[in-house]
Design a protein that fits this description.
single chain, 15% strand, four-stranded antiparallel beta sheet, 39% helix, 2 domains, alpha+beta, elongated
């Protein structure tokens, strides 16, 4: 969202960088009116049940000009819209979960197993990239393990499974 709003502000402002505060409400309205790929509707539609054409459409109409509408039908419409939005979000979350876990191997280690420890890039290029093998002392959780390290390492013995 921040990247999108930043891009929209750059497009609207161009060379007038000192006017960004004045343009922010217009950019915010445009963002909230745009259809989002996850929900398949705009944030305005989720909240208000319609997509306003201008900011003035969001103001309540005077009581003398209000049209009569069936409140239960309106509530049912909003309820169905929220259910559809929730379903769309759940579908996209599942899609992202599948794409994110594609190609990953689940590794389970037990105390006593021997492992190589990957050393981070902040070390010198002449130092080896991996050290070990070291014995797994304890399983903290599925992603973290405690290793039996030599005292000269001077670091915490707990490591993420990715290391």
């Amino acid at each position: 969202m921040n990247r999108t709003l930043g891009t929209m502000l750059r497009v609207v402002l161009k060379k007038n960088l000192k006017m960004w505060e004045e343009c922010l409400p217009h950019v915010e309205f445009a963002y909230n009116r745009a259809t989002h790929s996850t929900t398949k509707v705009s944030p305005f539609q989720v909240v208000y049940g319609f997509n306003p054409r201008a900011p003035i459409d969001l103001l309540p109409s005077p009581t003398t000009e209000r049209t009569q509408s069936d409140a239960s039908a309106r509530a049912e419409f909003i309820h169905k819209l929220h259910e559809t939005t929730k379903t769309n979000i759940e579908k996209m979350n599942e899609k992202y979960r599948i794409a994110g876990s594609e190609g990953r191997k689940e590794i389970k280690l037990e105390p006593g197993d021997l492992v190589l420890l990957h050393l981070r890039k902040d070390r010198s290029k002449l130092i080896p990239r991996a050290a070990g093998p070291y014995k797994v002392i304890d399983k903290i959780n599925d992603n973290a393990y405690k290793l039996e390290l030599p005292p000269e390492f001077g670091v915490s013995p707990s490591f993420n499974i990715s290391d």
